[in-house]
Amino acid sequence: MQVLSVTPEIFPLIKTGGLADVTGALPVALAAKGVTMRTLIPGFPMVMDAFNKKKSVYKYPLLQGGKASVHSVQLAGLDLFVLDAPHLFDRPGGPYGNAAGADWPDNWRRFAALSQAGADIAGGAISGYMPDIVHAHDWQSAMTLAYMRYGKAVGTPSMMTVHNLAFQGQFGAGIFGELGLPTAAMALDGVEYYGGVGFLKAGLQAAWAITTVSPTYAQEIRSPEFGMGLDGLINMRSSDLYGIVNGIDTAIWNPETDKHLVSNYTAASLKARAPNRAAVEGRFGLDRDGSPIVCVVSRLTWQKGMDILATAVDGIVATGARLAILGSGDAGLEGALLAAAARHRGRIGVVVGYDEGLSHVMQGGCDAIVIPSRFEPCGLTQLYGLRYGCVPVVARTGGLADTIIDANEAAIAAGVATGFQFAPSDGGALLHAIRRLAEAHASPAIFEAIQRQGMKTDLSWDRSADKYVELYRLLLSKRVA
Ligand code: ADP
After folding, report:
1. Which atom of ligand 1 is nearest to the CA of 381?
2. Any ligand 1 atom below 6 A from CB of 297
3. Is the same domain home to 320 and 209?
């Protein structure tokens, strides 16, 4: 089975979020199951700089305002098609905006071009290559499915994966004439969205199947609260909607071998977490007592519920727990958390910034990680927490609800508990969950059983890849011979 994946990001070449982890891990996990996934990505500078032999397999005299070509390369163990279009992608800054963080005004053109190339490849543009299925990710590649639908590859099964519905790629109606789609596409069942053009909307409309990164989020986005304006369409397509939880890279995230840790350990040697805990105490200026250390590793944003955390900090300190917070983002939230740390010296420590190594030490040394997200398509930090014996305390939403088994009495008795859930996402419920955590922490036998159970959870990509393969097969069975 040949699958063409179209994505703006792929780990380890270009990453701004979890989307890149998924698109980077899936080809590897699928290869073991007899599925060959090749991935089309934009030729951003860091991608073009990573390979030398620039022999193109397809040329465009004109693609969205300039010359372009497609290169077939192998990089970092991945089979890639790279869309080299310097007028669109050879720019400093990030993949979507300049160094100051402002979106490029022609993002619609840049990702329409990527999508156009995806549909052309799906239609047989590259000799010797014809994918059986096309798999698009997020709004940046969603238009691939629209170009397919109105072009040659109309009979090729397609999948649209939504990693975060908050990003939709909505543009004014004025761009439609430049997309190169037939006039009929500017319709309610095409790319038209509230009078403009909606890239993600177009993909959701055209996809043979829609997936998102957890079963609970797949249900949630059918409601106005989580659907962000697309719930009507998603409901209409609900019989083709699936949720598949992400895996994690269990080689990188392995407490037994992790080089970032001060001390490596396994579920059988939890006491060896102590030096990591001491490192966290040192780095965050925390008192050295036996109370639980609850950590936060997060973007400091409204989505992540960091304002909820900020309102609950005094109550959390009152439970006797300590807080170690690593994050960056909203300046107001950074300020609020730094003020809390100043108020509670020795009990709350805050490091503002992005620090991969420190995030590993925190997972390897803290007792718990708190994730009070308002919505969470999948979430990764709770999965790392499970693997590291850093017990997740999570809002019961999206992927958090699907991956953590709440330590209620029955679950503790059955030996299946892996963390603590709370709902709704507010300060009172969060505080209640922290109290339950502190109580469990006071009984080492119970707490260690929760840690070990989490560490046993299968978080590999293998399991998720099986589910994607199952869906690919279902789509192939719907193809008209
Ligand atoms: P999202 O992609 O919505 O930010 P996820 O939980 O899916 O949330 O993934 C966040 C990733 O970023 C995790 O790998 C987490 O460890 C990492 N991360 C977030 N903030 C920081 C930080 N300040 N320092 C280091 N790593 C961070």
Report:
1. 6
2. yes
3. no
CB 361 within 8 A of CB 384: no
- Please tell me whether residues 207 and 293 are part of one structural domain: no
Q: Determine if ligand 1 sits within 6 Å of the CB of residue 326.
A: yes
Q: In DSSP terms, which residues pair with 392 in a beta bridge? A: 369
Q: What pLDDT was estimated at residue 428?
A: 97
Could you tell me whether strands 196-198 and 192-193 are parallel, antiparallel, or unpaired per DSSP bridges?
Answer: antiparallel
The CATH number of whichever domain residue 176 belongs to comes to 3.40.50.2000
List Cα–Cα distances, 276 to 52, 267, 450, in angstroms: 42, 15, 19
Confidence of residue 481 (pLDDT cuts 50, 70, 90): low
H/E run at residue 322: strand 322-329
Give the chain's length. 481
Look at residue 53 and tell me whether its pLDDT is greater than 80.
no
Tokens found for residue 460? 């590999």
pLDDT of 106: 98
Residue 343: count other Cβ atoms within 10 Å of its Cβ.
12
Atom of ligand 1 nearest to the CA of 353: 23
Q: What is the mean pLDDT of residues 190-196?
A: 96
298 lines ligand 1 (CB under 6 A): yes
What are 85-116's pLDDT values in tens digits? Answer: 999 999 999 999 999 989 999 999 999 999 99
How does 393-423 read in b/e, with b if 16+ C-beta sit within 10 Å? bbbbbbbbbbbbbbbeeebbeeeebbbbbbe
> Comparing C-alpha atoms, which of 207, 125, 221 is closest to residue 164?
221
Query: Is 174 in the same domain as 301?
Result: no
* 87/423 Cα distance (integer angstroms): 48
CA–centroid distance, 123 to ligand 1, in Å, is: 37
Residue 441, token pair as written in the block:
């922490």
The token pair that represents 277 in the structure block = 């805990």
Instruction: Give the integer Cα–Cα distance in Å for 201 and 223.
Output: 16
Instruction: Tell me the CA–centroid distance for residue 459 and ligand 1, in Å.
Output: 17
Q: Confidence band (pLDDT; 50, 70, 90) for 17? A: confident
The pLDDT tens digits of the residues spanning 342-367 come to: 999 999 999 999 999 999 999 999 99
The letter for the amino acid at 50 is A
Using DSSP, state whether 302 is helix, strand or coil. coil
Sign of CA dihedral 334, 337, 340, 345: negative
pTM: 0.94
Percent of the chain scoring above 90 in pLDDT: 95
User: Domain limits at 133?
Assistant: 2-247+462-480
Q: Is 233 a member of any domain?
A: yes
Determine if ligand 1 sits within 6 Å of the CB of residue 18: yes
Rounded CA-CA distance 135/323 in Å is 41
Distance (Å, rounded) from C-alpha 57 to C-alpha 75? 16
